[in-house]
Amino acid sequence: MTKSSNKQMKYFYNLPEDLVVRVSSFLPIKSLSKNRVVSKLFRHAQIRSLDLDFSGISSVTQNQSDAINIIQNVFNKHEGSEINRFVLCLKEIGGEESITSWINTCIGKNIQEIVLDFSKSKDVMEISIDFSAIETLTVLNLRWCKFEIPNNSPKGLKLLRSLSLMRTNVTKEMINAIFTNCNDLEFLELIDCSMYGLLSIPAQNHKKFKSLVVSSMPYLMDIVSCAPTLEYFKYDGYVTNVIFLRTDALKEANLNYTRYRRIYDSSEIVVSNMKHYTKVYVLTTTNIFLEALTKRYVGGRRLERKGTFKFENLTDFKIFFKAPTLCTLFDIVEFLKNCPKLKRVVIDIQNFTFAHRLEFWQIHHKEEIENNNSHLMFLNEVKIIGYKGHWHELDIVEFFVKNAPSLVKLELQMPKNAKTKVHAPDYGRINFIKSIFPAIKVTEV
């Protein structure tokens, strides 16, 4: 039923016409709408769709009032006794009365999933619905839509598995109420939410909680998680103190660190947090992570290292480079040599260039890398996104082809306008690298 309309129709050829019409009435609303346009047979058929996904309504009409009329027409004709899923994305604030009516209809038909996305508008939508009282919900995703729990005592949400909140006020009492009431919760996402001080995740008695995402919450000072079953953690924002009381199940971490507007050294906090991530299998981060871990010259030729960690399980590593930074291939290698099982590496330099501040690399680091080979025995795939042919990018490529004996795939994604932004390519060196590993693939994106 999720295939294209033409493929759907092939299944109906040998069925009685009235049965075809009835079966089609249960199609997801997007597929049903296509059928009603191309066939008179379905034009006046009843609507019993369980999946009312209107996320593409803006591509049908740019006028919000027209979009509301289209959706209202669907609800007016909906004859089914159940609605499993309701998805709505609008660009402007308005139509609260209609939206409230649609949600109430869904509640009356045992709605399981609600996704409301108003993130393209300027203001947060306030809908007079107590979402915390809906008893049948398993998925609740509210973006730029107000969410409250009256008296921090939800009347529903007992079946909730996934909760995503964006641009809403969050309190300690609300989080406690959620984890106290939602025993089946598996996924919690907080994006651009207002919360000050401490975010505590009291999931010590939960057996299904697996994923936590915290993004763009600059007023948080600490995150403390007691979630023994947590498998995935994503943090996006300024470096902050994160404490995991248990990390037995943690398999993947995404640490998208950004800098404060004012200059300060966040490396001590990064190093302090590091012990929680040494057993993960997948790690995504930024150069701020490397800056905290690798050796620095602090005077003369004296090296200082702030922390040494071994990532014994790590198989996939992705890093985004963001300016300003002093990181070079040296910093990358210093980290990779502590990852004995590494199989895949992605380096994203789309919005970054190594054109500046390479003095330490030229004076000290380059020689050290050449004299101290670090064999990455299991590495078989490398991708460099934003490759522009800069000479230090070639240093990185050359390092991998020389030090990864199991290398199978090396892909360089080059921006289409890259040739106008860099010096002439060093074809002699490029040909030398290709002589070592001919399977290098360069694509323009």
Give structural notes.
By secondary structure, this protein is α/β, with parallel strands linked by helices. Helices cover 29% and strands 23% of the residues. It contains 14 helices and 20 strands. The chain has helices at residues 5-10, 17-24, 29-38, 40-43, 57-60, 64-77, 96-108, 172-181, 267-274, 287-293, 329-336, 359-371, 391-403, 427-436; strands at residues 51-54, 85-89, 113-117, 139-143, 162-166, 187-191, 197-202, 211-215, 220-226, 232-238, 241-244, 252-258, 282-286, 296-299, 302-304, 316-320, 344-348, 381-385, 409-414, 440-444. The strands form 3 sheets. The protein has a 15-stranded parallel β-sheet. Strands 7-9-11 form a 3-stranded parallel β-sheet. A two-stranded antiparallel ribbon has the order 14-15. A hairpin with a 2-residue loop joins β14 (296-299) and β15 (302-304). α13 runs parallel beside α14 (427-436). The chain is globular. The model has no long low-confidence stretch (mean pLDDT 85).
Summed up:
The chain has 445 residues and is α/β, with parallel strands linked by helices. The protein is built from 14 helices and 20 strands.
Overall mean pLDDT = 85
Beta-strand fraction estimate: 15-25%
Report the sheet with the most strands, covering strand number, pairing sense and barrel closure: 15 strands, parallel
What is the approximate shape? globular
Based on DSSP secondary structure assignment, what is the total number of beta strands?
Answer: 20
Q: From the alpha-carbon coordinates, what is the Rg to the nearest angstrom? A: 27 Å
Which secondary-structure class do the elements indicate? alpha/beta
Helix content: 25-40%
List segments where confidence is low: pLDDT < 50 over at least 5 consecutive residues.
Answer: none
Measured distance between first and last alpha carbons: 33 Å
Instruction: Describe the strand arrangement of the main beta sheet, using strand numbers.
Output: 1-2-3-4-5-6-8-10-12-13-16-17-18-19-20
- State the helix count: 14
